[in-house]
Design goal:
It is a single chain. This protein is about 50% helix and about 15% strand. It is of the alpha/beta class. A hairpin with a 2-residue loop joins β6 and β7. α9 (about 235-275) runs antiparallel to α10 (about 280-295) and α11 runs antiparallel to α12.
Length: about 600
């Protein structure tokens, strides 16, 4: 895979490049910021290693420019400046990691592997396709446990296809991904390597044409095209929404007394301040109650309640004195929180923040349909961004990356097919839902070949379209096992109900005494941890798992009330894959889980 090294210290970069080439990477080197920017514009990189102090254009500016133009590859900054101010500048500019010079080569390459692993592309467990396996750690390829001897380029070709099973690669795209800038071959060499790979696979009795030619486009791993004939009945869809809402409402009614008990614990501090009888134990209990309210109320549909509880928690951390100002402030916050809980029942709340949930880009000039679509989407926490034509859609994609694209077209003409192919190649993880006017096999095949994920036959109602988007996203998470560990049973109940609607299989744990046995038995695809828990905190659990060979690649997300940079940086440093703040909109959490699962999807067998 391809890495760009940017540093004006040529001997150092040459040594690093040689080390990476030995590990099967293609490497380019740029010695100033402007040259590096030209490389980024010309080629697709899986990772950029970038010095901060560069001629012509410094590393921070180059990092910021890359992110502003929509480039998503991981960026690792190198610098001789070891202070928090410079590190914060780097992270704010869009860097993913930060290494201080002088560095150890083994540590730096380990950091590179970690970044590529977080992006879900490389250094996975064994890759599989039916009975064929490829082990990136040993560079061994086997079919039915029999070793297949491949040349380095044949191995790289097979790995590229296995990691991107649905993507079509032209000969030029293969060259761009597998060869460095200094020694690119002609396209005939790609055809020769693919022919050699096919011959060796056939000799090992791998099924014929495992790597298929898509005429006029390139090559891809063979998979049968699938068509969606599912047209959910609107009644069934509405019933699903009703059941989901009823379950959340029922959970709120069950746990509301617990919330009021926590509120009473805080109120006891106010009373103690008035009587000048406040104890350390009473204040600590109230702070713990405010902490849990801040984390759980938002998941039950009370985001303002979580914000008020967070202010209360901060107030209860400080030393309190029995003065009028403190009592008045505490009394007002308690009154606001009580009103929020008592007079805003969950089932009447519809103000979901769309930007925090799933985002849908719709390309369609039927404004009435789009407006109805947006209204339906809001009830599921899906935000809709509209482009009335392809030109607007292309502009939006420069600065905005949706979770799903919905494209409504009469017939898949060349302009639409080219747009879909470019979109799929640049953002292979974004599903493309297409509404076609004609029920024509040729046109359906054309859409599928350009990266279409789901085909809907016109006419389609807004309810059917959003139901199909939900179904597609739920399918992404279908069967995926997610384990959540938090000492707040109320929060766990709310998250379990909310996330099951997205197709996940959930296990929630609030007793750390059963954590390890539950982990082994459940064997999750993804783990969500709180930071503050009794006995063992989330950071320690993450470190424990990262030190275990069996669990070190398990995706881990932190879900916590801690917003400070120090805690977040610490979480990523010990191996976290993502970091989210409470209170969390369930749709946002589902979105982050789906993205993480999609990134590691290529690690698993089809």
């Amino acid at each position: 895979m391809r890495i760009l090294l940017v540093d004006d210290d040529e001997p150092l970069m040459t040594a690093l490049a040689n080390s990476l080439i030995e590990q099967h990477y293609a490497v380019d080197i740029a010695t100033d910021g402007e040259s590096a920017w030209e490389f980024i514009l010309l080629f697709t990189y899986d990772l950029v290693v970038l010095d901060v102090m560069l001629p012509k254009l410094d590393g921070i500016s180059l990092c910021r420019r890359s992110r502003a133009q929509g480039y998503q590859m991981p960026i690792l900054l190198l610098t001789s400046k070891d202070n928090s101010v410079d590190k914060v500048k780097g992270f704010d500019a869009g860097a993913d990691d930060y290494v201080v010079k002088p560095f150890d080569f083994d540590e730096l390459t380990a950091r590179i592997r970690a970044l590529l692993r977080r992006e879900g592309h490389y250094f996975a467990p064994v890759l599989k396709w039916e009975n064929l396996t490829l082990d990136p750690r040993t560079c061994e390829v086997k079919y039915q446990d029999q070793l297949i001897t491949l040349t380095p380029k044949e191995y790289n070709l097979l790995e590229l296809f296995l990691r991107n099973p649905q993507q079509v690669f032209s000969a030029g795209a293969v060259i761009e991904r597998l060869w460095s800038f200094e020694d690119p071959p002609g396209e005939e060499a790609v055809r020769t390597h693919i022919k050699g790979l096919r011959h060796k696979l056939k000799a090992a009795n791998v099924p014929k044409d495992m790597i298929e030619t898509v005429y006029g486009m390139g090559y891809r791993l063979r998979s049968e095209p699938t068509y969606s004939t599912v047209k959910p009945e609107e009644q069934k869809y509405q019933a699903q929404k009703t059941r989901h809402l009823e379950a959340l409402t029922k959970a709120w009614q069950q746990f509301k007394p617990n919330m009021l008990e926590r509120l009473a614990a805080i109120n006891a501090v106010k009373d103690a301040l008035i009587t000048n009888s406040l104890t350390t134990q009473l204040q600590q209990q109230a702070r713990a109650s405010a902490h849990k309210l801040a984390g759980s109320l938002g998941s039950f549909g009370f985001p303002e309640g979580s914000k008020i509880a967070k202010v209360l928690e901060q107030l209860l951390i400080d030393e309190l004195a029995s003065n009028g100002d403190k009592i008045e402030q505490l009394s007002q916050l308690l009154a606001d929180l009580t009103q929020e809980i008592e007079h805003q029942p969950f089932h009447t709340q519809k103000n979901i923040t769309p930007s925090q949930g799933i985002s849908l880009l719709v390309i369609d000039n039927d404004l009435i349909f789009v407006q109805q679509l947006a209204e339906e989407a809001t009830t599921w926490g899906i935000s809709v961004v509209v482009a009335t034509n392809l030109a607007e859609g292309k502009k939006l994609l420069l600065t905005y990356q949706p979770n799903v694209v919905l494209l409504k077209i009469a017939h898949p003409e060349a302009e639409y097919l080219t747009f879909m192919a470019q979109l799929h190649q640049q953002y292979p993880l974004i599903p493309i839902v297409t509404i076609l006017a004609a029920d024509n096999l040729t046109e359906r095949l054309a859409v599928i070949r350009q990266g279409g994920s789901l085909l809907l036959q016109s006419p389609v109602t807004p309810q059917q379209a959003i139901a199909s988007v939900n179904q597609l996203l739920a399918k992404t998470g279908s069967g995926a096992k997610v384990m959540i560990v938090d000492d707040d049973a109320q929060l766990l109940a709310a998250l379990k109900i909310a996330l099951e609607a997205w197709g996940f299989y959930l296990l929630t744990i609030n007793d750390l005494g059963h954590f390890w046995s539950a982990l082994v038995k459940f064997n999750p695809d993804l783990l969500i941890l709180d930071i503050e828990m009794p006995e063992i905190n989330g950071m320690e659990l993450c470190q424990l798992l990262r030190s275990d060979p069996h669990w070190q690649s398990l995706p881990i997300l932190f879900l916590t009330v801690h917003h400070d940079d120090k805690t977040q940086h610490q979480a990523f440093a010990i191996g976290a894959d993502d970091y989210l703040n409470k209170p969390i909109v369930p749709a946002e959490l589902a979105n982050r889980i789906l993205n993480r699962l999609a990134r590691v999807k290529s690690f698993k067998s089809s």
